[in-house]
Design goal:
about 650 residues, single chain, mainly beta, globular, about 5% helix, 19-stranded mixed sheet
């Protein structure tokens, strides 16, 4: 039996101090530390599938240590009854240290235990450490005019050890203004509160550490695979170091985001409801990307300030409190948000992969597209694949606008129709294109709470509309023949006189609703039934395997990742009767029971559409490859009030 464990320990805390030397000046100091240790073990037993048929043990430790120092001094002054303000000056110092220790042992000596000492050979160990130092100085002034106009102006000077000597420090300004106009016009029965606001700010993003240096490593990743599948530089059995495939950059500037934001906040019907709206437009310049290099350089990529991105969106929230009494209360809130990203410019390349070591489907940035779309080879499809005679399939032109005839099967066909060859199977495209988009069309939530006397009930629904997921788990299980969809399959055990496998039974027409690939089809093989079995799903021993992970494409496993999730339900009750004081010695006792991630409504066929391979560490979104789903948890809490 496999073993996959993670033991996490974490210690964190802070010390704060406050000094008020005079009544108009306050000095605050905070020193915090955070230490986390994650010990992981993965054990594969003997008789496992490739690449560990004799068993394997992967053992690792991740250590994160962070120290943060924050010092601020705030001066307050009232100039007149109509004008007051504050001035804040401060400093922040931050140090982050991440260390990774890991080793892989291969070929188990005995079935158990899963220990490195119980393996015959061991890879060269991984011992990687990352240290980043940040130092920031900032100042902010605020003004309150007539108790209704609020102005803020601020500037930061940030520095990071991840930059070169010429760009260690950078300035970032910001400013905002807000007008509480109901202070001028007075409260109304419908409009009890109103504020208009606008702001502009600039922020920077530091690069990943050591991009300025050409480094050496004891392990070189292959195609994004983990679990010990790496190329260890060795010679005559002795470990060594290999030059990184990323060339050290000569110079890097910070990514600079310039954002304008405006909106309003309204209180309605004497605070029975409130409405909030925000519009933002952010443009990020000098985006740092690992751009491809010519092989003649000896490297694959180099970090450069090469791109410009734009993010534009809206946020809307409405909270309604229809019932508010001392014994009975009910409120409900709605939140909605929409964001559209756009790659404005790449500075030369046609596309750049966000995580170059990832395998198909790869997320990329392409001028004119949203950030992070899936860019890879798909199936030959009308209106999506290149047009032109012989451009994709010999003897055919997939131009969707051409007059329909034998050589132009896509003429008049729906966009996205699959081209079916004479053998009844689809055909692989020969050109990369956008095959999916993991970015949602909009997100939202619905929150509601209810209380009756001492009983409280609340709930939260989260909604994501649109956004696609590459279901790599399903693709792999198809190829292994272990997915439920493969239970009914063609029999491929017979052979012809030439030794070629013959598959019979489980006949389907590609494009039909009951086929593995439903949808409109064109081409000479449209309507031709074919057996669906190992020949379709796997293909290594028989057939093309075009319907599985290794012979087909990720395009056919791109699914809708939208969902509605019952995020949380909480029920609580407060006991504050006299017997609580007499018996327990407390003024009240609060009992709460809550459940989180209780149910998901989705069309996604995987475990959980709210998942991502690589988590927050990678820039790629919308990939599922044997990912763990969100945990369902139940919490019981007891609060004693003295």
């Amino acid at each position: 039996m496999n073993e996959n464990t993670s033991q996490v320990g974490r210690v964190f805390g802070n010390v704060t101090a406050e000094l008020v030397p005079v009544d108009w000046l306050k000095v605050n100091y905070t020193l915090g530390a955070d230490y986390a240790n994650d010990e992981r073990l993965e054990g594969l037993p003997q008789m496992s599938t490739a690449p560990a048929p004799a068993g394997r043990v992967t053992e690792g430790k991740l250590i994160n240590y962070q120290i943060d120092h924050n010092l601020t001094a705030t001066a307050t002054h009232t100039f007149s009854s109509d004008l007051s303000g504050t001035l804040t000056l401060g400093q922040n110092l931050n140090t982050r240290n991440v260390r990774q220790l890991a080793n892989v042992g291969r070929t188990l000596i005995a079935p158990v235990p899963f220990k490195l000492s119980n393996t015959v050979t061991r890879d060269v160990p991984i011992d990687a450490e990352t240290v980043v130092h940040d130092a920031s100085y900032f100042g902010q002034a605020t003004f309150d005019m007539y108790n209704q106009v609020f102005v803020t102006a601020a500037v930061r000077n940030d520095g990071s050890s991840t930059f070169d000597q010429n760009h260690l420090r950078s300035w970032f300004p910001k400013g905002s203004v807000a007008w509480e106009f109901t202070k001028k016009i007075g409260e109304r029965p419908i409009l009890s509160y109103g504020k208009l606001r606008a702001s502009y700010g600039e922020a920077g993003q530091e690069p990943d550490p050591y991009l300025m240096s050409t480094v050496f490593s004891g392990i070189t990743p292959i195609g994004g695979y983990t679990q010990g599948m790496g190329a260890n530089p060795v010679q005559s059995g002795f470990g060594g170091l290999a030059s990184s495939i990323v060339k050290g950059a000569n110079t890097l500037r910070p990514e600079r985001t310039k954002e304008f934001e405006t909106g309003f906040d309204l209180g309605l019907f004497r605070d029975k409801a409130d409405l909030n709206f925000t519009y933002y437009n952010a443009k990020t310049y000098d985006v740092i990307l690992l751009t491809p290099l010519a092989p003649s350089t000896g490297y694959e990529r180099e970090a450069k300030n090469s791109a410009t991105f734009r993010n534009r969106g809206y946020e809307l929230s409405l909270n309604v409190r229809p019932i508010q009494t001392s014994e009975l209360g009910w409120d409900v809130g709605f939140q909605w948000a929409q964001n559209r990203s756009l790659v404005v410019d790449l500075g030369g390349p046609k596309f750049v992969y966000l995580d170059p070591n990832f395998t198909s489907p790869r997320a990329a940035v392409i001028a004119g597209q949203e950030v992070g779309v899936f860019y890879d080879v798909g199936l030959a499809r009308c209106g999506l694949s290149p047009a032109g005679m012989d451009a994709v399939v010999a003897g055919y032109d997939l131009d969707i606008h051409a007059a329909n005839d034998a050589a132009h099967p896509c003429g008049g066909a729906p966009q996205g129709a699959y081209f079916i060859d004479t053998n009844g199977e689809p055909v692989l495209d020969n050109t990369q294109r956008v095959i999916g988009n993991p970015n949602p069309r909009w997100t939202g939530s619905v929150r509601s709470s209810f209380h009756y006397r001492k009983l409280q009930v609340s709930g939260l629904l989260d909604i994501k509309h649109g956004g696609q997921i590459a279901n790599g788990t399903k693709a792999a299980l198809y190829s292994y023949g272990t997915h439920k969809d493969t239970e009914v399959r063609a029999d491929c055990s017979a052979f012809d006189i030439n030794g070629n496998s013959i598959c019979t039974g489980n006949m389907h027409v590609i494009g039909a609703a009951d086929s593995p690939l439903p949808g409109p089809v064109v081409g000479p093989g449209a309507g031709t039934p074919i057996p669906i079995g190992q020949n379709w799903y796997e293909g290594a021993a028989v057939g093309s395997g075009i319907g599985g992970l290794f012979g087909g494409t990720s395009e056919q496993f791109i699914e809708d990742g939208g969902f509605v999730k019952l995020r949380e339900i909480t029920v609580g009750y407060t006991f504050d009767e006299p017997w609580v004081q007499r018996t327990l010695g407390f003024s009240s006792v609060e009992v709460r029971v809550s459940g989180r991630n209780l149910h998901t409504w989705t069309n996604y066929t995987g475990y959980d559409p709210e998942t991502n391979l690589g988590g927050s560490v990678t820039a790629t979104r919308g990939r599922d490859y044997f990912n763990m789903p969100q945990t369902r948890s139940f919490v019981f809490s007891l609060t004693l009030n003295h």
